[in-house]
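Q&A FORM
Asked by: J.P.
Topic: structure of GH3 auxin-responsive promoter

PROVIDED:
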Amino acid sequence: MAGLYRYRVGDVLRVAGFKNKTPQFNFLRRKSVVLSIDSDKTDEVELQAAVSNAVNHLKPFGASLVEYTSRADTVSIPGHYVLYWELRAGDTTVPASVFEDCCLAVEESLNSVYRQGRVFDKSIGPLEIRVVEEGTFDKMMDYALSQGASINQYKAPRCVRHGPVVELLDGRVQSTFFSPRCPKWAPGNKQWDKDTGGI
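REPLIED BY: S.T.
REPLY: Here is the structure written out as C-alpha cells.
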C-alpha cells in the first residue's frame, strides 16, 4: 500500500515472478552485512543459519531467542566475533555450559576460512555471546528512530559498528560466555593462504 518506491532499507531482493504486471519479490539478504576479523567473511545468511543451529541448545530449558545482532571486536588481540542475544527466559535457568555450547555451535556452523583462522592460524579468538537485558532491542529501535529512522522500515541490524549502539548494548549486558574450545577444522584443498590472499 505504501509503494515499493519507499523501500530503501538496504535489503537485496530477487524478483520471483509477476502478478499481472506487478513484480513479486523474495528477500535474499541485507546489503553489505559482513563480519570479518582476518581473511574470514561472514554474511548475514551464514550468520543466521549458525545462530539458528545454536539456539536449539536452549530449547530443552524453554528459553528462546527474541533478537540478536553482532559485531567484530578488533580491539582485543586476536579479534573475535561478539553476538548480542536477547532471550525470553523459560521455566528453567540455562546453565553457563549450555551457552558455551551455543558459542561452539555457532563457530562450527561458520565457513572453513573462519574455522582455519580459529584453529590453525590463531588469528581469530573464541566467539563470545553477550546476553542482554529484556527490552534492549526496543531501546536500540528507540535510538534509531531518534536518529531519523522510519518506524515502518526499521529492522534490528544484524551487524553493528562502534559507537552509541554498541555502548547501549554493552551497557545492558547481563552475562558473557565464550566458546570453550576451537571448532572442528581439518586442512584440505580449500585452505586459505593469508600470504597470497587466495585459496
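FOLLOW-UP: The first strand starts at residue 11 and ends at 19.
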